[in-house]
Design goal:
alpha+beta, 7 helices
Length: 217
Amino acid sequence: MIRVHHLEKSRSHRILWLLEALGLEYDIEVYQRDPKTQQAPDALKKVHPLGKSPVITDGELTVAESGAIIDYLVNRYGEGHFQPGPDKSNEWVNYRYWMHYAEGSLMPLLVMQLVLTKVPQQVPWLVRPVANKISAGIKAGFIQPRLKDHIAYLEAYLSEHDYFAGDFSFADIQMSFPLQALQSRTGHRYPQIAAYLARVEQRPAFQSAREREQQLL
């Protein structure tokens, strides 16, 4: 039996969604973040040494990292569903690209932005004005210009495509979290991204995963 080690407020919702889309049976073990530090509990380190989520166990096998989990589940249980075949060369290339883009290009910028937002809150109040200026300078000079390029790129792409690789695919599941984070952390609703998220979040498997998650948390 597949077991999802599910941390609240994490990227593991994508894995629940994937399992629902594949129609697989699975169990969920829920972990709560520390209310003060928002860190994952040490119990997760018993599953994987880094104590991060998402992580799954399938029998004796443990698989971590969203992309690796998706690859494992798709290759073992997917039976060709929700992924373009190599015969559809453009869609297959797009599928591989967006699967890696989500965590390799977009998410690091959003994580840096989040960290820099929290840095001034963690330093002594005497140096907080300096920390605020440094954080604001890095965000304005480095992160925001790059995010602006990514947002323009995504808006243009989604203005011409309903999904990231032809029909709905697992690349859309992988892309969902960074796009949700982008909308939330920038405080904006970019029209094409917002329309895309509304589209995928209406899918039955997404709704089933959300309902199951909410029942447990």
